[in-house]
Amino acid sequence: MGKIISFINQKGGVGKTTMAFNAAHALAQNGHKVLAIDLDPQANLSLLFKAKTEINIFHLLINSVKELKMHHLPALLGSIIVKSQVDLIPGGQDLSGFELTVAAINAPRQLVLKKFIELNALKDRYDYIIIDCPPTLGLLVINALCASDGVIIPFRPDDFSLKGMEHFYQVIEDVADMGIVKAPEVLLHIPNLVDLRRKQESNDLLKIIKSIESELGEGKVFSPFLNKAGLVKSLSSRRSVFEFKNQEFSELQDKFSGVAKKIEEWSHGHI
Ligand SMILES: Nc1ncnc2c1ncn2[C@@H]1O[C@H](COP(=O)(O)OP(=O)(O)OP(=O)(O)O)[C@@H](O)[C@H]1O
Ligand SMILES: [Mg+2]
After folding, report:
1. pLDDT, tens digit, for every residue of 101-115?
2. Under 8 Å CB-to-CB from 177, ≥6 apart: which residues?
3. Of 53, 105, 144, 266, which sits most exposed with the smallest number of CB within 10 A?
4. Does ligand 1 have an atom closer than 6 angstroms to the CB of 46?
5. Nearest Cα to 39, choosing from 125, 168, 151, 176?
């Protein structure tokens, strides 16, 4: 049975899409069958896959809800999914209307994505399903949380990131309190865009690591990703770090392989 892992942080620009894209490719490198789902109206992940986004996950989600289906054009998974080393269900601007569109349905609004994944037996078809989330804690992200087995939190260490994380943990607890699904486990935090030369930033990072470890135990914070020109270069050419060869990229490849290893180890403990 496949595992669903969401990359989440309500803050923008912390590296959710970058991490989701490269971690998905790292898992595929290891021989896993991987599906990426772009749940962000900005559709940055879909851009990285060079995917067209006119018909996208929004239409598939709406079509999976009986009460809404009759009011919308049919959308078929087979014609929307983009096949490559990592498969993709694209996102698109329409997703920003998701909350409003499902507002009046009788079926549980938080479970639309989970039901869609079940309906299409995606957990039987893939080893890993990686979801890239928008920078909010709105209904789309609640849907991601309710569908996921695990979450990964990329973050930039600063004064405010701890507060944001506490808020996020509260939301996970709220999901658990709803009592309809098992809340996902936070399997990893990834400090990103870290500048270790700045003393304040190193101090903030240490404080955050300590706080996470005291809550969750050791091994839940990955070694920091620094600001890497290579990463920007690879993203702007719409390729994963595994498509490049030189010293800087071999370091980045090792780091993302490390993230994949963490995911694999975690899944083995959750069969
Ligand atoms: N380690 C890094 N080194 C250099 N640039 C990075 C690094 N990580 C991310 N970036 C750059 O930072 C920007 C934001 O990254 P990304 O889009 O992955 O963040 P995000 O959390 O998905 O943003 P949003 O919340 O808007 O979806 C991108 O332009 C990306 O190229
Ligand atoms: Mg993003």
Report:
1. 999 899 999 999 999
2. none
3. 105
4. no
5. 151
How far away, in angstroms, is 12 Cα from ligand 2 center?
7
Residue 5: HSE in the Cβ half-sphere, 13 Å Cα cutoff: 31
Q: How far apart are CA 255 and CA 241, in angstroms?
A: 10
CB 119 within 8 A of CB 113: no
pTM: predicted TM-score of the whole model, two decimal places: 0.97
Structure tokens that stand for 82 in this block = 């983009």
Cα atoms found within 13 Å of the Cα of residue 186, Cβ hemisphere only:
26
Does some domain include residue 271? Answer: no
Confidence bin at 129 (pLDDT 50/70/90): very high
Whether 185 maps to a domain, the answer reads yes
C-alpha 253/C-alpha 168 separation (Å) is 29
What is the residue range of 30's domain?
Answer: 3-265
Please state whether beta strands 87-89 and 34-38 pair in parallel, antiparallel, or not at all (unpaired).
Answer: parallel
Buried b (16+ CB within 10 A) or exposed e, 119-139: ebebbeebbbbbbbbbbbbeb
d(CA 145, CA 152): 11
Whether the CB-CB separation of 40 and 187 falls below 8 Å is answered with: no
* CATH value at residue 134: 3.40.50.300
Radius of gyration of the chain (CA): 18
Average pLDDT of the chain is: 95
Does the C-beta of 85 come closer than 6 Å to ligand 1? no
Count of structural domains, the chain: 1
Res 248 pLDDT > 90 = no
Is residue 193 within 8 Å of residue 156, measured between CB atoms?
Answer: yes
Alpha carbon distance 42, 178 (integer Å) = 29
Q: Is 14 in the pocket of ligand 1 (CB under 6 A)?
A: yes
